[in-house]
Amino acid sequence: MKKNFYITTPIYYPSAHPHLGHAYCTTLTDIIARNKRMRGADVFFLTGLDEHGEKIQKNAEAKGVSPQEFVDEVAVTFKELWNKLRISNNDFIRTTEKRHLSTVQDIFSKFVKDEDVYLSAYKGWYCVHEESYWTETQLGPDHTCPECGRPVEEKKEEAYFFSCKKYLDDLLKLYEENPKIIVPVGRKTEMINNFIKPGLNDLCITRTSFSWGVPIKEKEGHVIYVWLDALTNYISALGYGKKDHSLFDKFWGEDSEIVHIIGADITRFHTIYWPMFLKALNLREPDEVFVHGLLMMKDGKMSKSKGNVVYVEPLIERYGVDAVRYFLGREIVFGQDGEFTPEGFVERINGDLANDFGNLLNRTLGMIGKYFDGVIPSRNEADFTDLDRDLLEKGRVAARSYEVLFDDLKVTESLAKAMELADEANKYIQERAPWALAKDESKKNELANVMNILASILFEVGMLLSPALVEKSEGLFDQLGLDKEDRTYEKAVSLSSLEGTKTQKGEPLFPRLDVVKETEAIKEMMAGPKEKAAA
Ligand code: MSP
């Protein structure tokens, strides 16, 4: 693991109130950022908004406000949601900010100077919704957008183009040399087959038919077409090209690990054009572009335009932020598409958090209370049995696999690994049967060992889950009676003895949900008037 770690989400279109799909990407990125921080990396986590473009301009017109007013209003709802979800981003970039705007202009000027761009006319099939031009061969049936299925329109206008041909060889070399440039690897095959093999067209990077964008200095009437504007956020936020570029040097430098987390819908822009822009700027590429799947509903991708969105606020209000965060991290395998269903949500919370995790906590603290007046007893290795040694060893192995999985961005599997350890500990309770040991005075030492080991394992499980369970992990550490300064990753995974600590059994952290009632409640949230639910 490198010391410096730079991680980003896509910058979202503030075209409407954010939904669970946006929350999915940001939460997963947050879980990774928190994991790396907890393990000692110096992390910079960036998210933000992509505020220009024709769609935003049209939405603002429809609402009778200026585009700036429009995005200012929606920006607040994104920021509020990230607060509620306890997102730990270090910065929030908006592409209408001056710090970003001037960087985009400077980059475009450099491209002009270096002859990376040229003026021409663009004729093509344009999808207003996706803000993408498509070639004839890429279109869906009846001239529809291959991405969203809406009809496309034929357009021609004066435009600047970025010369992709110039950088194609570099791109292919990058694909060969860095297997992580597109993860999962299947997405790379998609890029090669769908976009590169058919012949990569140069990319249109200015537009003249709308005005809501970064104006270029070189020619009146042209604004930067969204993708050059949007992608630049990853370096403008760090101060690239600015007087104070210390953050840029630190987090875009060679000894930083750079990871972009994106949804499958924007892979092309991040894995074809972005590396090319960076090459043209003589900058290093990211280490990894991780493509997560989409959150689907029974009727397809969750999106505002499909009218099937689930808002996050009512879920947080009813079940707490950790239930939502854990569900998103654990239920949908990171990198694959997944479906949101009310049943799936309730089952996941009950099965993992109320049963496995909650039971372990309640039983352990209950027994420490009953047999040792709530004080964690000492451990005596001379009286260890194979089962004791075995569980401690499983705890050590779990931490190592968890780290490897996390560094591979296998977030779902890492959380599952932590939960497996909770399962093992529950099994251990059954096998060691402390209630029986307690009846036998000669087994007092063994009973103490069992309780001591369980407390250490519980501490570890809480720590491994803490990037997802940001509040409840603290609740667990409170109940275990740990001092604030002792709540470190190193201490937790060392599984050292917590003897003498006074535990404080409290309320169950995750009360069991009534399946029928809660399934209905979530259905109600999904069916209710959307704007009301989001308010
Ligand atoms: N503004 C561009 C991205 C520019 S990045 C330099 C954009 N914005 S978006 O708001 O439409 O979508 C951004 C991301 O939101 C997607 O890539 C994806 O990560 C996330 N999601 C939006 N809807 C989603 C689902 N239904 N499911 C999962 N993620 C979703 O594209």
Secondary structure topology:
Layout (H helix, E strand, L loop, with lengths): L3 E9 L7 H19 L3 E8 L4 H10 L3 H18 L6 E4 L3 H16 L3 E11 L4 E3 L18 E10 L5 H10 L7 H12 L6 E2 L1 E2 L15 E2 L1 H6 L1 H4 L9 H6 L4 E8 L3 H14 L7 E5 L2 E3 L2 E2 L11 H7 L1 H11 L6 E2 L2 H31 L13 H22 L3 H22 L1 H4 L6 H22 L6 H9 L8 H6 L20 H13 L2 H5 L1
Parallel strand pairs: 1-2, 1-10, 2-3, 10-11, 12-14
Antiparallel strand pairs: 4-5, 4-6, 6-7, 8-9, 12-13
Helix pairs in contact: 2-3, 6-10, 11-12, 12-13, 13-15, 13-17, 13-20, 14-15, 14-17, 15-17, 17-18
The structure holds 5'-O-[(L-methionyl)-sulphamoyl]adenosine (MSP).
The site of 5'-O-[(L-methionyl)-sulphamoyl]adenosine has 21 residues, from strand 1, helix 1, helix 7 and strand 10.
Description:
The chain is 50% helix and 13% strand. It contains 21 helices and 14 strands. The strands form 4 sheets. The chain has a 5-stranded parallel β-sheet, with helices on both faces. The protein has a 4-stranded antiparallel β-sheet with strand order 5-4-6-7, covered by helices on one side. Mean pLDDT is 94; it is low at 529-535. Bound molecules: 5'-O-[(L-methionyl)-sulphamoyl]adenosine. Residues 10-13, 21-22, 24-25, 50, 230-231, 233, 262-263, 265-266, 294-295, 301-303 line the site of 5'-O-[(L-methionyl)-sulphamoyl]adenosine.
